[in-house]
Amino acid sequence: TLGYRFTDVQDRWTDLVNQLKFQSGEEQETARNTCHRLAKDAVSRLAPAFFSSPTLVVPIIGHDELETNPNSVVSLLAQDIASFNSYHYCPDLIRKSRTHEPLKRIRGREERIAAHENVYRSRRLEELGYSRPESVILVDDIVTNGTSMNDAARAILEANGEIEIRGFALARHIPKG
Question: What is the pTM (predicted TM-score) of this model?
């Protein structure tokens, strides 16, 4: 994650990510430009060590959606990251079998894992017209315990066999209690 600490206490990074997620208009656009520039820079610096080409960039799906929303904050971030090097934005690789309550509202790690267990499904890469990539980057805006990314990775691996999968998020939320 780019933001190693994300709490309900106000700090500059928390404010920036909150503007990206919850504001509209000029404030959101300014936050988007800053976050996306930082994300692309981080991925470009990490790429030689962690990401092999070809790489698919896959957005994590929101808690209240079953498929990728192309206009969501996460999808737009994934599209920007994919524009780096020879990466491919792949919005339709994963989908969900059901919606769920936002994980940040669920107290306790075990409860979050149970609420999200086996929610993600993956299509086979061949049915989408993709040849086997060297790696996949799962993109999310905020990660708490990695539950969404872990379940999405599980689904991709089950459907497509061994592929290097890495996660990328703007911030890590540290839940209270």
Answer: 0.85
